[in-house]
Specification:
The chain has about 240 residues and is an alpha/beta fold. About 25% of the residues lie in helices and about 20% in strands. The radius of gyration is 17 Å and the shape is globular.
C-alpha cells in the first residue's frame, strides 16, 4: 500500500492583527484570513506583539476558511529582540499570552500617538482593547527562559527577522548564540548574519492586508498540521 505523499504547502508564521498598535485597523483576524486564503496559504499564524487576545477569533476564522491555524505572538524578550512563540493549541497559546502580557513593562498606550490595540471577535465586532503599550516594552524573561517556557508548552521558538537592523538578534546581540531554536526567520537570503545550522524560514510580518503572503515559505508536509510542521523542522 502506498504511503501518504508529502506535498508542497504554503506557510506564513508571522502576521499581525489590529491588536498590534503598529497594525492596520483593517487587519482584523477575519481580513487576515481572507487575504491568506486568496493567496493559497495552507497554514497561517497570528503573532501580535506580546499578547494573544485575538487568537480565539483567529481560530474561528481559520476553521471557517479551511486554513490550519498556528497560535502565536511576537514576544519582546529581555534583550529587546523580537521572538516568535508558536503553539498548536489555542488554550495553551491564550494562557501563554496572558502570562506574557502580565510580565510586560507597564507603559500605558496612547492610541492617538501609538495606535489602537483592538480585540475583536470573528465577525469584526470590537469586544475590548488592551491598556499596556504592546510594541515597545520588553518582558522580564531572557531568550533562554522563553525557549524553555515555549518548549515546555509543546511550542516552537523562532527568533524573528534575525538580520533586520532593529529589534533583532543582529541589532541587539550582533551574533546568533547557539541555542535550542526550532528555526530562524530571515529577511534576506543569503543571510548576512551567520545562521549556523538552523533551518531558515521567511515570514510576511504583515501589518496591512496587502502585505499578507508577501514572504511566505513552502515546505513538503504529509499533512498540514502543527505537529507535522514540528517534525519537519526537527529533522
Amino acid at each position: 500500500m502506498e504511503g501518504t505523499r508529502a506535498a508542497l504547502m504554503l506557510i506564513d508564521l508571522h502576521n499581525h492583527s489590529c491588536l498590534s498598535p503598529c497594525g492596520s485597523l483593517e487587519m482584523s483576524p477575519t481580513r487576515l484570513v481572507e487575504e491568506a486564503a486568496l493567496k493559497g496559504i495552507s497554514m497561517l499564524a497570528l503573532t501580535d506583539h506580546n499578547a494573544g487576545d485575538n487568537l480565539p477569533a483567529f481560530d474561528k476564522c481559520c476553521r471557517r476558511a479551511g486554513i490550519v491555524p498556528v497560535f502565536g505572538m511576537e514576544v519582546t524578550g529581555r534583550e529587546e529582540a523580537h521572538l516568535l512563540c508558536l503553539f498548536g493549541n489555542l488554550k495553551t497559546a491564550v494562557r501563554f499570552g496572558y502570562e506574557i502580557y502580565e510580565n510586560l513593562q507597564t507603559i500605558p498606550n496612547n492610541p492617538d500617538m501609538m495606535g489602537d490595540q483592538i480585540i475583536v471577535d470573528e465577525d469584526e465586532n470590537i469586544i475590548g482593547e488592551l491598556d499596556k503599550y504592546l510594541a515597545s516594552g520588553a518582558v522580564d524573561f531572557s531568550m533562554e527562559e522563553l525557549i524553555i517556557m515555549v518548549h515546555e508548552r509543546n511550542g516552537l521558538f523562532i527568533p524573528a527577522h534575525i538580520d533586520r537592523p532593529a529589534f533583532s538578534i543582529k541589532s541587539q546581540l550582533g551574533f546568533l548564540p547557539d541555542n535550542d531554536y526550532d528555526a530562524v526567520e530571515v529577511m534576506h537570503s543569503p543571510c548576512d548574519l551567520n545562521s549556523r545550522r538552523y533551518f531558515e524560514i521567511t515570514g510576511s510580518d504583515a501589518h496591512y492586508p496587502e502585505n499578507v503572503g508577501m514572504r511566505s515559505f513552502e515546505i513538503d508536509l504529509k499533512t498540514p498540521d502543527f505537529e507535522e510542521l514540528k517534525l519537519f523542522l526537527s529533522k
